[in-house]
Amino acid sequence: MPARSDQRKLLRARRRALTDSERLERSVLLCSELARQPLFRTSKRIAAYLPADGEVETAPLIELAWRMGKQVYLPVLVPYSANRLWFARYQPGTQLVKNRFGIAEPEIVHRQRIKPQALDLVLAPLVGFDHHGHRLGMGGGFYDRSFAYLLHRKYWRRPHLIGLAYDFQQLPRLPSQPWDVPLTAVATDSGWHLFQKGKSE
Predict the structure, then answer these.
(1) 4-194 is classed in which CATH architecture?
(2) What is the pTM of this model?
């Protein structure tokens, strides 16, 4: 099995090779697929992300969520903490600043920040995924650390983590680590991959 670093390098290159029009076309297809899913339709507080490095474009999903009256949040790097995320409210006109990775995030307003546990759904970027719901990220561990508590919960597993990917990002198998937080599902431009039951038990 190829090393994670090699898989990451190949998939990132293929992702970046998409033209802007190809990326938008695939993202619109993905948006249509996800919009039909009960997990998306019933969620009130949704975390998204602003794409970088060729990631799936989230603007169609964010705009749809706003039209449906949902609250949208974006990840914000926690200052002075090891690779953890806060989530800040994102609305039309929200002032954005660039973090240390050059990715835009909302300027922190304390009253608009919520804990991961308060979210219903998280639309997560990824580099690769497999049919077990294992996620290959950029290597920083931000999502795994921020949602590690889900690994210790048998009931009321909120939020649900939904990966957004192009269909070519699916891999036969990814080696898993004890700290990896599995995805509930992945939406791609060609379909919907559900790994866990779509409701709390």
Answers:
(1) 3-Layer(aba) Sandwich (3.40)
(2) 0.89
